[in-house]
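Table S2 (continued). Query chain:
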Amino acid sequence: MPYKRKPENQHDNENHSLKHAPREETAGDQHMKDEVLIEQNRHAATMSPGLEHGEKYHAAGKRDVELYIRTYNTLLRSSGEINLKALIQAHYNIDSSLHPDARKPYPDMSAFIYSVLRLPDVINQCELVLLGQSEEVFLQQGFHVNKWQAVTASARRRKWFYNGKKTLAAYVASVSDTDDIVPVLVAFQIEWNKMYYLLKEDPTTMQLLETQVDPGSPVFAEISKVLRQRLHIAEDDWQRLQVIWGDHLWEKLHEIGSQKKSFNLRMLGGSHVGYVKATRKWWAPVRNLLDTLGQPDRPVYFVSSNTHSLINLLSGFSLRNEKALTEFARSGADPYLAEECAKIQEGTVPGNWQNFLYFATREWLKISAGREAARARLQEAQDRGIWHVGARHGLEIDAQVFELSKLIPAEIDPRSRMSGMDVLKKSDAIILNIDYPLGMAAYRMMREIMENLSQICGIYVLGKAATLNGSIGDVMISNVIMDEHSQNTYWFDNTFRANEVQPYLIYGSVLDNQKAVSAKGTYLQNRQYLDFYYQSNYTVVEMEGGPYLNAIYEDQYLTRYPTDDNINLLSLPYELGILHYASDTPYTRGKNLGAGSLSYFGMDSTYAGTVAIVRRIFANEIAAIQRRLTHPLDEALAPLPDEGMPAQETADKKTRVV
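Corresponding output:
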């Protein structure tokens, strides 16, 4: 059993008080228009928010973040609606690393784009946002979300429902969802209203947005330039808005200029039991599938990643349709695909051909030929023992089951193949893959899975993270994780090393032996907060590692996970591997994958990590089968601990890892 030792005051934030630092006051005459300060002197660089009770300016730190969290959690206890205007000052005070220019009069486009990608498109029409744990909670309050329109956000998996008027409902799977939704809405409102005032400064600006002009004409380009300059948006940020909104860019800007944004927010109930019920409802169809497949207590390799990489590597769908995909890419129907295809085939860029095929498949499935192939895709997958369980009952987390015995080795991604794969036909093991949860939802889901599955052979986590010492696209491998929810610091033996991932990574580096922090939210970080951890050599900031380890603790000990403790998980009865790929670098003032390129660049690190996980599972299962075939009686004859064999040796016998 893993060893636990008491804290050694390593991360006692009370002993690291932040020094008060004076902040320069803004030049020029300023006045407040609700939450947005409109600066008369356009040359001023910053704005100074008013502080009450004579409080002095100070560098924002962890204390301000905790105050922000307490503020909105306290307000959300109300049975009525709260206006997000009440949270604007608290949002300013945290000096979020994702929202560095919140106080400035001109738009912080990185923060705005980050928020736009994590909210449904209908958010522009909404005034009220409802939060609830389940459909029953909404129905009990008179909101028939089962009849509302289901909507999605491009960069955040969550169940959203729109009533067609001005109300949006969101399912929350854990407290982490609240920590995510609230700051995103506040940031969106702040940046929306900045642009609202800028669009209203000159009456002709709105008239320009109403002009009917051919998008391909020089006049359109000239008007766009004028609009961009009046909104003080950099050219590269303008281009990113064009990628996101396409031909609706002017229409969206007109919506912003037509009305100020003032969200109301309401939490419908919310309890620990409610989260447990929602998680059990999510698990029920997964359990039903396992029962249907027979042998519900099969050996399980658990993976938390996404729903595209594993199935692409193991199903062979894109490889079987390689010719059609190549012809589609070369056709020029999508200029970007045609250009990338030529570069890879000519060797002018070091891209991976399989990754390109997986990326091209998404676009190919949108045309008639691709849709025809997609009709047979589901049956082909099931013939290969691949089953999909769509998200239902509140939690927007899909699940996949892979029966190792039914996979066809010749169709598996070449990077994942290895010798001895023919013996997998004798395997009774499965891979259970879930779309990685957000924050504390990982704890609830991992615990539910552990309560229902008795033969877990390995736990592998692949997720996104911020890096404080690397670059976007790098892969980080941590063996120490500090969880902000429980304030526990975990030491564990991460099964992965750099040399297991680096051969499959083209554009980035692999950094192992790192230390990670499981933060409460992406917006809930600032420079002082990051500096505090960086000085203690914590270089990875993510959200699900700590919650997963809290659940693993409860699988090994008799009590619920503790708080503010130092815990050693070096001797687990199953293999544990955690990989994170860098999606943003907070020290570069909010630049991240959400604000940057939307190409398939991010697939490089995702698939490098997935290949490493698949190879690890295959190697372990092949070794387990060969061991079973060579020594078929070993497991049956192994004595119990009270028959003379130490408990640790018995555990080693049952461990199915190399």
